[in-house]
Every structure is written in C-alpha cells, then in structure tokens.
Amino acid sequence: MGTIRLLPVSVAIVAFASGAIAQGRPAAPAMTCAAAVDLVARNGAIVLTTGPITYARFVRHGGFCPVPETPKPAFEQTLDDPKCFVGYTCQDRFSEGSGRD
Known about the structure:
- By secondary structure, the protein is an alpha+beta fold.
- Helix content is 32%, strand content 27%.
- It has one domain.
C-alpha cells in the first residue's frame, strides 16, 4: 500500500524534472536588445543562443570571468538592434585573439 501512495509523487517529480530539462536556452535574436541586456544583468552570467547552431556565455562584468580571463565587450543581433551591447564575453588575457567567444 505504501508504494501506491508514492507513485503519484514519483510521477510528478519525473514530469517536473523532464520539463526543466526540455527548456531551451534564451535566444538573443528572438528578444529585444533591452530584454537581452536585462537578462545578462539580472543573471550575472548566462549562456544565450546567438544563431541557429551557435551560443555564447555572456557576463555582466569581469568578476564573472575565471582567472586569467578578462571581459571583452560583446555585441549580438537582437530583434530591434543588429549590434546590441549585451554585456561581455570572457577572453584569455594571455592569448591574443582567442577566448570563449
């Protein structure tokens, strides 16, 4: 009888967990510039979809970059701005031209 009572709870937990996993990451091209900027600012660091098969991690400021990386201004296309300043990406300060763009 104890397993019968646990079954509905188990089903609810599995349904909730699978719904959270199925959620996609926010897409910069599908939101306004203000919404993208706000999302980065509120989260501090977040991964956004930037194109059909691309994504990047954006940060509010350099405090969200791992050592020895430094913040680099990041501009992405949004619904209302082809070059919206959404925040920063983290770039290795010791390697010219390479980073987590």
